[in-house]
Design brief:
Strand order of the largest sheet: 7-6-5-4-3-2-1-8
Shape: globular
Order of helices and strands: HEHEHEHEHEHEHEHEH
Helix content: 40-55%
Largest sheet: 8 strands, parallel
Structural class: alpha/beta
Distance between the termini: 17 Å
Strand content: 15-25%
Length: about 240
């Protein structure tokens, strides 16, 4: 497994470098998050062994178990944990207490919960506003015209740090269609930066649309399948008693 994951990571990193060079961007400006949801500890260990340090989890409880496992055993290696799933109010404390980032903030009451639940002794939780850029009723995220109102609320919270925007658009196969949607996100990101110059993160791009996202200005791509291969839900994701 470790050899396959190492090779996959090398391939994805090369894709990022090539995509960045094709649009005259510095590839070092783009952070790779390995989406490790449902993946066992052994797979994450293999990615760490290949130099990966940033991981994304969709399920708060599963993520907390993995974070705790690695913090206990890999104290000399600093990992960065991103919560990238739908944020539920009954799981917000787990995200506030254990994760370094939350990508999916889209409701005022969740802003207040995360701020109140983030331990004062920890650095502020890095947060991204999730935009429903494709205006899908079944997708999480706020409408673009509500972005600045939510941003203003986040800026008032001492235990949160507004870092930028995130989106999961409708799946498109055509590069130009992908690019069109991502460019709309780039326009919103520029508007946010004009008011809050410290914002620096545009989280767009996954396995199937990485190149278009980077071309549009993504600073953070979330890649799961291309690193860990297709998810297998028939086996437990955890191996926490090693």
């Amino acid at each position: 497994m470790s050899t396959i994951i190492e090779q996959n990571l090398q391939r994805v990193r090369q894709q990022i470098r090539t995509a960045a060079q094709n649009c005259n961007r510095d590839p070092h400006q783009i952070t790779l998050i390995a989406v490790s949801k449902t993946k066992p500890i052994s797979a994450i260990e293999a990615a760490i062994g290949a130099g990966q340090r940033s991981f994304g989890e969709n399920y708060a409880q599963e993520g907390v178990e993995k974070i705790s496992w690695f913090r206990e055993r890999l104290q000399r290696i600093e990992l960065v944990w991103h919560f990238i799933g739908t944020l539920q109010s009954n799981k917000s404390r787990l995200v506030a207490e254990y994760f370094d980032w939350c990508h999916t903030l889209d409701r005022p009451y969740l802003v207040h919960r995360l701020n109140d639940q983030r331990p004062a002794q920890q650095p502020p939780l890095n947060v991204l506003i999730q935009i429903n850029i494709s205006c899908e009723e079944t997708k999480s995220g706020i409408a673009p015209n509500r972005m600045l109102t939510l941003a203003a609320l986040i800026e008032k919270c001492p235990h949160l740090k507004l870092r930028g925007l995130m989106a999961i658009p409708t799946l498109e196969i055509d590069f130009q269609r992908q690019l069109e949607v991502f460019k709309r996100m780039a326009v919103l990101f520029s508007a946010l930066k004009r008011i809050y110059p410290s914002t620096d993160t545009l989280s767009i791009g996954m396995t199937n649309d990485l190149e278009a996202a980077i071309s549009a200005g993504s600073t953070l791509v979330r890649i799961g399948t291309a690193i860990f291969d297709a998810r297998d839900h028939s086996h437990p994701p955890k191996q926490l008693n090693k």
